[in-house]
C-alpha cells in the first residue's frame, strides 16, 4: 500500500461531494429491505428506491451488506434507550406488554411495509451472510436480555412468584413478536395482532399479592 497521497495532501484527490440526502436515502433503503428482505433486494432495487447511482451508493455506504446493517440499526433504534424503557417500566409485565403492543402497531403501519424488518431480512432462507444473521440476532438478543433482567428483578423483589422462569418468559415475548410479524406479512390486521398480545399476556404469571 502506498502512503504518498496521505503524506502529501496536495496529491490527494478531492472526492466529488455527495449530491443526495444521506439520511433520506438510508430511510428508503430501510423500507426496501423491510419490504423484500436482505437476499432478494438487489442493488438496482436499492438505487431505484434511494434515487442514487450505484457508485454513489457504494461511496456513501460501502456495499449492500453494510448498507443493510446500517438500515437495521436505524430500524431498531437506540438500543440503550429501549433497555432503559424496559428497566423503567412499572413491572416486567408492563414492559412485555408495551413491547408487544408496539410491535403490533409497527408491523401494521400505514406508511411502512407489513411485518418486521429484522424478521423479513432472512425470511428468504439461509443464504443471508453470517454477519447479517449475527447482527439481527444481536439486536433481538439485546431486547430479550433486557426483558429477562427486568423479570428477574420482579422475581427478586417478590412481584412475581419465585418459580417464574425469566428466560422462558422473555423468549415467549420474542416468539410472539416474531410470529406476529409473519401474520402481518400474511395480511393480518392490527386488531387481530392486538388481540394476540392480550391472549399472550394471559400466560404471564400473576403478580404476588
Helix/strand-derived class?
Answer: mainly alpha
What's the main sheet like? none
Into how many domains do the coordinates divide?
2
Q: What percent strand?
A: under 5%
CATH homologous superfamily name of the largest domain?
Tetracycline Repressor, domain 2
Categorize the overall geometry: elongated
Number of helices: 11
Radius of gyration: 21 Å
CATH architecture of the largest domain: Orthogonal Bundle
Low-confidence stretches: 1-17
Helix content: 55-70%
Question: What's the CATH class label of the largest domain?
Answer: Mainly Alpha
List the secondary-structure elements in sequence, H or E. HHHHHHHHHHH
Distance from first to last alpha carbon: 69 Å
Provide the CATH topology of the largest domain: Tetracycline Repressor, domain 2
Number of strands: 0
Question: What is the mean predicted local confidence, pLDDT?
Answer: 88
Describe the oligomeric state of these chains in a short phrase. Answer: single chain
Q: Would you give an account of this structure?
A:
- The longest helix is centred in the C-terminal third of the chain and has 28 residues, at 130-157.
- With 209 residues, this protein is mostly helical.
- The termini are far apart.
- The relative contact order is 0.12.
- The chain contains eleven helices and no strands.
- The chain is 66% helix and 0% strand.
- It has helices spanning 4-7, 22-36, 43-50, 54-61, 64-76, 79-88, 92-107, 117-120, 130-157, 166-185, 190-201.
- It folds into two domains: 20-73, Homeodomain-like (Arc Repressor Mutant, subunit A), CATH 1.10.10; 77-201, Tetracycline Repressor, domain 2 (Orthogonal Bundle), CATH 1.10.357.10.
- It is elongated and about 60 Å long.
- Helix 5 runs parallel beside helix 9, helix 6 runs parallel beside helix 9 and helix 7 packs parallel to helix 10 (166-185).
- Residues 1-17 have low confidence and may be disordered.
